[in-house]
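Slide 14.
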Amino acid sequence: MAGLPTMLDNSISGQTAYARAPMRISFAGGGTDVAPYPEREGGAVLSATIKRYAFASARVREDDQFNLTSLDLGLSAEGQMDQISELDRRLHLLSGPVKRLVTDGRGVDLRVQSQAPPGSGLGSSSTIVVAMVGALLAAHGRRAPRHAIAEASVEIERGDLGLTGGTQDHYAAAFGGVNFLEFNGDSVTVNKLKVPMSTVATLEHNLLLCHLGTSRESATIISDQRERYESESGTTSAALTLQKELAHQMKRALLAGQLDDFGALLDEVWRVKQELSPLIATEGAAHAYETAISAGALGGKITGAGGGGYMLFYAPFERRFEVAQELRKAKFEVLDISLDEMGMESWTDG
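Slide 15: predicted structure.
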């Protein structure tokens, strides 16, 4: 695996390592990171990480047993490496990093927990993989560049485990901050944007996360989008290209501090996103959207692939309270947003 150190040496039994990686909110360009679009036309995504995290801990054992625990699912299984696939299929997300990275014959205790549920649209599964890679490296006394950690996480989730999806989440979680990500074939360029503190503070205040009360299976929606694109559907192809253009426009508005223009563009992103697949929009999303816009929000879109999870809204400073109040009256959970600048972090108890 390019860029990652080998784990054949330096096992440190008994030492527990920890890692956390942030979830992300994607503003524009979602879908242009999903193959085969970036290989054919090049993709671009504007996103930011938030202070909601996936956590992982890893400890090298004296024996050859592996204990995999998902605190979110309430599942745990223990066995030798050749038994991992049969332990519990619901723990496959944990077995992937272990199989790929732990090659020295020693067992590992691996535990994970996420602050966002599966199907949230915040990139939770990919963020968990990034956190596990960071914890496993640290448990073996190793470090790696952020780009290599993101690349390895993509290979594990999309390649080894065969899970459908894009690649933006892994890079966002590894690097943190506000990023403009460019996808060209197998190459990913991470452009960390230097957004003024005053702009970040206002953006944090004006953005709202609204939980729709449902989760979704992103793979189904992404597969439908991919099939529509590969069937040379003019609508889907044009929508993806416009998503990419909107990512560029929103980046310029953000760097210029033109946040109300940024919020209005978010609304355009949502309109275009719905053209990618009929599975993206739901009745709950439509209700939340109508409620927020009527209360004064300038724009909003669903996070992630769509079909459920969270909606992201932008409200002008003077209307933000009213928008949140009306959404809560409509029985939606509304969360404040704080941006994360650190990306994946790991440490040990030693």
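Speaker note: The first helix runs from residue 37 to 40.
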